[in-house]
User: Fold this.
Amino acid sequence: RRLRHLEQAPCYNRMGVSGLGVVLAAYGVASVVAFAAYGLDKRRARRGGRRIPEATLHGLEAVGGWPGALVAGRVFRHKTLKRGFRVVRGLIVVAHVAAWGFWLATR
Assistant:
């Protein structure tokens, strides 16, 4: 039995979850993975272990994990002083927000 209010959600259609729902789920998964990667990298940094390359962290942000990366940066206090890293992460966030804005404006 379907809930009436669910049928009115933008990520739902009569067949089930739409493409938007899949995209939002992918953002969620990528965010969890990015959060975990930041935590692991911070742990390795403290212990002097092998680090996760910055390009990998940025790649996780670029595929949709930027929300998790932003939260992880605050929680773990990681990559907060490296200006170059923050600039690239900021550009990735701006690109995603702009893409969502464009998509919403053209619907």
About this structure: Residues 79 and 85 are 7 Å apart (CA to CA).
